[in-house]
Amino acid sequence: MTGPTASPPVRPWWHDAVVYQVYVRSFADSDGDGIGDLDGVRSRLDHLAGLGVEAIWLNPCYPSPQRDHGYDVSDYCSIEPAYGDLDTFDRLVADAAARGIKVLMDVVPNHCSSEHPWFRAALEAGPGSPERARFFFRDGVGDEPPNNWRAVFGGSAWTRVDDGQWYLGTFSPYQPDWDHTHPDVADHFEQVLRFWFDRGVEGFRVDAVPPVGKAPELPDQPPGPPGATDEELALSNPFATFRPEGHAVWRRWRRLTDRYVDEHPGREIVLVAEAYTPRRPDLLLEYARPDEFHQAFAFDVLLSPWRASELRQAVGDQLMLLHDEGVVPTWTLSNHDVQRTVTRLGRANATDPASYTGSALRYVDAPVDLELGRRRALAAIAFVLALPGSVYLYQGEELGLPDWLDLPDVARQDPVFLRTAGAFRGRDGCRVPLPWTADPAGAHGFSPTTGAAPWLPQPDDWGRWAADAQAADPDSTLATYRALLAARRRFATGNDARLVDLHPDLVAVRRGRLVAVLNPTPEPVRVGDLLTVGDVVVATERSAARGTIAPDATIWVAAVDATSPNGGGPARVASPR
Ligand code: GLC
């Protein structure tokens, strides 16, 4: 008797997917109100298909007063009117699917908007009411708040209401925290997930995971180190972050998701945790596990100084989790909360561990060399694109956009800036509307030419990075990204990846027939006999001297099998100006 031929297990789509983050507000404005919208996203899907991404992740596009640009949700089952409506959303999902692109959403479980109807009802219902039990309302101590907890965006985490009670907002007063132990809250979020799964959403990036779940007695937190900021205190509060009460929520969500997938053959839904766990792979493992999240962002490369030792550790930790625990890495170098890669890596102090405070939001300022940043950013993305796992890109990084550090203060809108009276610059600089056209009309093609000014202004030289000019230039950053994504599909396959010891100044990984090498130093470095074992199929900079890798560059060397359909010679070498 002959059984069926054993075929290799099919990996879910998200294992090796390149996912493109769309910050809707700043992506493309279709109706001329100066605010990006879902029809704008639809109008630019060919750009994303041309780039070669498998999915997009939409930042929150639910109705919201926009005090934290969508991370203050007032209705979890609808669309922000400035962005469109549910029909627009359905059209977007369909148009994306027609191009083979899946849609992930962003769900915000820790808090809602202070305008959410349930919170409004809680305010009206008064102390002791069932409405208040869905949130954390407490009596104060005399005129003081119930405890000493601080808010991420500054100030006390407690806000007093007219009747004297206080409510908890881990981020800000306009983002009251949900109490997930309340059955209404638990049921509500289960309905929310199902609502979007039914509309074809193939997964969620889950926002601010560590603060979900609080120690029931809400005790005072221990004092922090001298000079600790409110944000540092809030995110290290042992009674309000990384809590077992939170894990109970994720287990429920995972059960629901697995059940949904079982009921809907063909669906492969992914839950990705946003949890900053600096250099704590053990902590990441508490979230990325078979009964909680499928994946959790690997932020350590983003948080590393530009030095081989730290970068090697950041990469090695993830590969270790993959091999030992089967956790699929989720690489990311950039997002809407951090300095854009070109700026971050172009800073004169980018190699200095002390230039990072361990938080994603804070950087020690230093002069920025954009050309250096461009080279390093390309080297960094080329390196992670060689690795197993999914890779998340942030809109505009494929254009090589820098942060706008000099954005005038009057234009800034980030609560990080507003709530610290400008002590922290905040995140507006990485959220400037995209330049689609070199022609400045309509904010460089962000809006129709007759449109209103964009919600955040663009710097005068924004046209330098315009997508249309780059699309026509084979040496542009955009063309290089396309080539890198194509090279990844062709050469970066298989889960068997390990760090290799080539040279102490280099970071090198072998993945099947491919060896990817990053040189984060300002000098060319010899790569031994590596170049004799295969072809250089990617080089972000050409090397001037034989047998070496250029400064601040990545190369991929592939042992090409001439008999395979894909073999027979190098792919296009990515080598921009
Ligand atoms: C996450 C989001 C950030 C938001 C915060 C509060 O960190 O990425 O943009 O401000 O959560 O929801």
Report on this structure.
This protein is α/β, with parallel strands linked by helices and 577 residues long. It has 2 domains: 13-109 and 183-478, Glycosidases (TIM Barrel), CATH 3.20.20.80; 117-168, Oligo-1,6-glucosidase, domain 2. Helices cover 27% and strands 12% of the residues. It contains 16 helices and 18 strands. The strands form 4 sheets. The protein has an 8-stranded parallel sheet. Helix 5 (183-198) packs parallel to helix 7. It is globular, with a radius of gyration of 24 Å. Residues 68, 71, 108, 171, 207-208, 274, 336-337 line the site of alpha-D-glucopyranose.
Write a brief caption for the model.
The chain has about 575 residues and is α/β, with parallel strands linked by helices.
Which small-molecule ligands are present, each listed once?
Answer: alpha-D-glucopyranose
Number of strands: 18
Any idea what the shape is?
globular
> How many DSSP H or I helices?
16
What is the architecture of the largest domain at the second tier of CATH? Alpha-Beta Barrel
